Amino acid sequence: MLHVEATALPDVKIIRLKKFGDHRGFFSETYSRKAFTEAGIDHDFVQDNHSLSPVVGTLRGLHFQSPPFAQDKLIRVPRGRILDIAVDIRASSPDFGKSVAVELSAENWLQVLVPAGFAHGFVTLEPDTEVLYKVSAPYAPAHDHGLAFDDPALGIDWGLPAERLILSDKDRKHPRLADLPRYFA
């Protein structure tokens, strides 16, 4: 029912799901612990989150939680389209500071698994975009952190000019990678 592909950062996975359609619409099993475990993805998801961004260029991120509340995330888009970004922030990783981008949309029906130790963010590419994601740890405000979306050391191309990006005040104030404590040593 699902196919798992590695990205340029091997721990970040793309999940291709089956979608069965007929004259009534479609059906898709978007998560089955058994199927995911059999495909080598064994995470204990404890919470589902859902966001709506009415305006193109809404950027959420780059976010992560530090241990012991670090989160694995399984992201999908049931309506609209996003550019999803994951940045490796594991200090001992050979991919430290590298990022990967995957376009997720209602049309392509892909999911992305972003494991703990990665900062995560996305920008909306269509109006009224909805993003659903499972997380493996509950929200813990004292462990909630972020990474500067515009850090030149990361070199992330968000796909839109900077003046079109809409961010929260909080997301504009995150530290750059060089100033980020090594939460994932």
UniProtKB/TrEMBL annotation:
<comment type="subunit">
    <text>Homodimer.</text>
</comment>
<dbReference type="GO" id="GO:0000271">
    <property type="term" value="P:polysaccharide biosynthetic process"/>
</dbReference>
<comment type="similarity">
    <text>Belongs to the dTDP-4-dehydrorhamnose 3,5-epimerase family.</text>
</comment>
<comment type="pathway">
    <text>Carbohydrate biosynthesis; dTDP-L-rhamnose biosynthesis.</text>
</comment>
<comment type="function">
    <text>Catalyzes the epimerization of the C3' and C5'positions of dTDP-6-deoxy-D-xylo-4-hexulose, forming dTDP-6-deoxy-L-lyxo-4-hexulose.</text>
</comment>
<dbReference type="GO" id="GO:0019305">
    <property type="term" value="P:dTDP-rhamnose biosynthetic process"/>
</dbReference>
<dbReference type="GO" id="GO:0008830">
    <property type="term" value="F:dTDP-4-dehydrorhamnose 3,5-epimerase activity"/>
</dbReference>
<dbReference type="InterPro" id="IPR011051">
    <property type="entry name" value="RmlC_Cupin_sf"/>
</dbReference>
<dbReference type="Pfam" id="PF00908">
    <property type="entry name" value="dTDP_sugar_isom"/>
</dbReference>
<dbReference type="InterPro" id="IPR014710">
    <property type="entry name" value="RmlC-like_jellyroll"/>
</dbReference>
<dbReference type="GO" id="GO:0005829">
    <property type="term" value="C:cytosol"/>
</dbReference>
<protein>
    <recommendedName>
        <fullName>dTDP-4-dehydrorhamnose 3,5-epimerase</fullName>
        <ecNumber>5.1.3.13</ecNumber>
    </recommendedName>
</protein>
<feature type="site" description="Participates in a stacking interaction with the thymidine ring of dTDP-4-oxo-6-deoxyglucose">
    <location>
        <position position="139"/>
    </location>
</feature>
<dbReference type="InterPro" id="IPR000888">
    <property type="entry name" value="RmlC-like"/>
</dbReference>
<keyword id="KW-0413">Isomerase</keyword>
<feature type="active site" description="Proton acceptor">
    <location>
        <position position="63"/>
    </location>
</feature>
<feature type="active site" description="Proton donor">
    <location>
        <position position="133"/>
    </location>
</feature>
